[in-house]
C-alpha cells in the first residue's frame, strides 16, 4: 500500500471515529480454517486402526479452544487447539496445527490413543492456557459425552521440553456427577522465578461452580454461587438463522492485569446469561472453601449492565480491556474495565455473520516482540448441535490481530473522561492503562 493511500485510509478512519456513535470495524485475519478437521497419525497402520475402532470418524470433531505459543528462539511458533470428545470419532483431544492445517496430538499420540481407558492420558480437553512461566495448562474433563470415564485432571507441560511438570487429579468431593470442568485461568502470584506460587481457577460449566487449584500445595477446593448458574431466561440462543437451547453455567473467565503487590480480580459469566460477575482472587484463594463451597457469597458481585445477548469465551489484556464475542450478530466486542459495565461502554471491533459465529475461544497473546495480539477461534457449533454441518463449507476458523491495530479507531482503550465506577464491587483503577494510541501513530508503522 502506498504512503498516500495508507494515509488516506487512516485519515478516513480517524474522521469516522470523530463522529458520535460511529466506530470503524476491522476484520480479523484468518490464520487457519477447516471444512472438517484433518489429523496426522504416527503411521498408516495407526490411522487404519483408529478408523476401524471408530476412534476417528471424519467430520465428527469440533475445535473449541486454541492458544498461540510464540517461541523466542529459532524454533517455529505453534498453534494449539483443543477438540473435546462430545462422542466418538476424535482421535486426539489436544494438538498442534501444522502449515497445512493438520493436527498432531500433543505431546504425542500415545496420550490420546485411549478413548477414556487410560486415565494417565488425555480423555477430553475443552480449554488450555499458557502462562508467563512458559507452561501449557490443560484441563481434562475426563468425560466422553456425558460419561465420566476418568476423574477430571489439571496438567501442566513445560513448553521448552514438552514434558509433564504437574498433574492434579481432582478429588471426588470437588465435582458433582454433572460437572464439566472446562476453562482454566492461571494466576502466577510470584515472579517467573517462583512459578510454584500459582493458582488455577477452573470453570465448571454444568456443575455450576469454580474449582480453585493451589499448585504449590497440590490441593483444590470448590466455590459455588448463584451467579455461576445459567439464567433460564437466557437459555435460548440464536446465531444467524439457527436457534437452539442450552443451559450452561459459568463459562467465560478472565483475570485483571497483574500488578505487583495487589490482588487480581476474576471476571466470569455463565454462557446462558448476559451479565458479568467479579470476585477478588484473594477471596477465591481463601481455603475456608475447603469446608464450605459457599463460604463468602457476599464477596462475589454482579456488574450493573448487561450484554445485548449471550457470550462464550473472554480474555483481558494488560491494559484491563476485556474482549468477548456475542452470538447475534456474530461479532467481537471490547469493554474497558475502568468504566461502568454498560452498553454505552461496549465497543464492537469486528463483525461478520459468516466467519465469527460462536467465538468459543478468546486469547490475548504476548508475541516475541512484547506486543499483544488477540486470537479467536470460531465455529458453526450451533450446526454441529443440530446435526446440520455442511462438510463442503468452511466451518471452523482461527483469527488473529495485533491489539493496537484493533484500537486505531476505537474508544475502548480511552480512559473515561467522566468514569461511572460503582463502589461495589471495586473495579480495578486506571493506573495500569497505557497511553491512548493515536491514529497518527499508525502513519509511522
TrEMBL record:
<dbReference type="InterPro" id="IPR011042">
    <property type="entry name" value="6-blade_b-propeller_TolB-like"/>
</dbReference>
<dbReference type="InterPro" id="IPR011048">
    <property type="entry name" value="Haem_d1_sf"/>
</dbReference>
<protein>
    <recommendedName>
        <fullName>Yellow-d</fullName>
    </recommendedName>
</protein>
<keyword id="KW-0325">Glycoprotein</keyword>
<comment type="similarity">
    <text>Belongs to the major royal jelly protein family.</text>
</comment>
<dbReference type="Pfam" id="PF03022">
    <property type="entry name" value="MRJP"/>
</dbReference>
<keyword id="KW-0964">Secreted</keyword>
<feature type="signal peptide">
    <location>
        <begin position="1"/>
        <end position="24"/>
    </location>
</feature>
<dbReference type="InterPro" id="IPR017996">
    <property type="entry name" value="MRJP/yellow-related"/>
</dbReference>
<keyword id="KW-0732">Signal</keyword>
Amino acid at each position: 500500500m502506498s504512503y498516500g493511500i495508507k494515509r488516506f485510509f487512516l485519515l478516513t478512519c480517524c474522521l469516522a471515529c470523530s463522529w458520535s456513535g460511529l466506530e470503524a470495524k476491522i476484520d480479523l485475519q484468518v490464520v487457519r480454517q477447516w471444512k472438517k478437521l484433518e489429523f496426522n497419525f504416527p503411521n498408516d497402520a495407526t490411522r487404519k486402526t483408529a478408523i476401524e475402532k471408530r476412534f476417528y470418524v471424519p467430520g465428527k470433531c469440533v475445535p473449541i479452544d486454541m492458544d498461540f505459543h510464540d517461541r523466542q528462539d529459532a524454533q517455529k511458533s505453534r498453534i494449539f487447539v483443543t477438540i473435546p470428545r462430545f462422542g466418538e470419532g476424535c482421535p486426539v483431544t489436544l494438538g498442534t496445527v501444522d502449515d497445512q492445517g493438520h493436527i498432531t496430538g500433543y505431546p504425542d499420540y500415545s496420550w490420546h490413543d485411549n478413548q477414556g481407558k487410560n486415565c494417565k492420558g488425555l480423555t477430553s480437553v475443552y480449554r488450555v492456557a499458557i502462562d508467563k512461566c512458559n507452561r501449557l495448562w490443560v484441563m481434562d474433563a475426563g468425560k466422553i459425552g456425558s460419561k465420566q470415564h476418568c476423574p477430571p485432571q489439571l496438567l501442566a507441560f513445560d513448553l521448552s521440553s514438552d514434558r509433564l511438570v504437574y498433574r492434579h487429579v481432582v478429588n471426588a468431593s470437588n465435582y458433582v456427577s454433572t460437572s464439566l470442568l472446562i476453562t482454566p485461568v492461571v494466576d502466577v502470584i510470584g515472579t517467573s522465578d517462583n512459578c510454584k506460587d500459582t493458582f488455577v481457577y477452573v470453570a465448571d460449566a454444568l456443575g455450576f461452580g469454580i474449582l480453585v487449584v493451589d499448585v504449590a500445595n497440590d490441593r483444590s477446593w470448590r466455590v459455588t454461587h448463584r451467579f455461576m448458574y445459567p439464567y433460564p431466561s437466557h437459555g435460548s440462543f440464536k446465531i444467524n438463522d439457527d436457534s437452539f437451547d442450552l443451559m450452561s453455567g459459568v463459562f467465560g473467565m478472565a483475570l485483571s492485569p497483574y500488578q505487583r503487590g495487589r490482588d487480581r480480580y476474576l471476571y466470569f459469566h455463565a454462557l446462558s446469561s448476559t451479565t458479568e460477575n467479579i470476585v477478588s482472587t484473594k477471596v477465591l484463594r481463601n481455603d475456608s472453601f475447603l469446608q464450605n463451597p459457599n463460604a463468602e457469597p457476599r464477596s462475589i458481585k454482579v456488574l450493573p449492565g448487561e450484554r445485548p445477548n449471550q457470550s462464550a469465551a473472554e480474555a483481558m489484556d494488560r491494559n484491563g480491556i476485556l474482549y468477548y464475542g456475542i452470538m447475534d450478530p456474530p461479532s467481537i466486542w471490547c469493554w474497558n474495565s475502568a468504566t461502568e459495565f454498560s452498553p454505552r461502554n461496549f465497543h464492537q471491533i469486528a463483525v461478520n455473520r459468516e466467519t465469527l459465529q460462536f467465538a468459543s475461544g478468546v486469547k490475548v497473546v504476548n508475541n516475541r516482540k512484547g506486543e499483544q495480539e488477540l486470537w479467536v477461534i470460531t465455529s458453526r457449533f450451533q450446526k454441529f448441535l443440530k446435526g446440520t454441518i455442511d462438510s463442503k463449507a468452511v466451518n471452523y476458523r482461527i483469527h488473529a490481530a495485533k491489539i493496537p491495530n484493533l484500537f486505531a479507531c476505537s474508544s475502548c482503550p480511552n480512559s473515561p473522561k467522566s468514569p461511572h465506577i460503582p463502589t461495589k464491587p471495586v473495579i480495578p483503577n486506571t493506573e495500569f492503562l497505557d497511553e491512548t494510541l493515536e491514529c497518527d501513530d499508525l502513519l509511522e508503522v
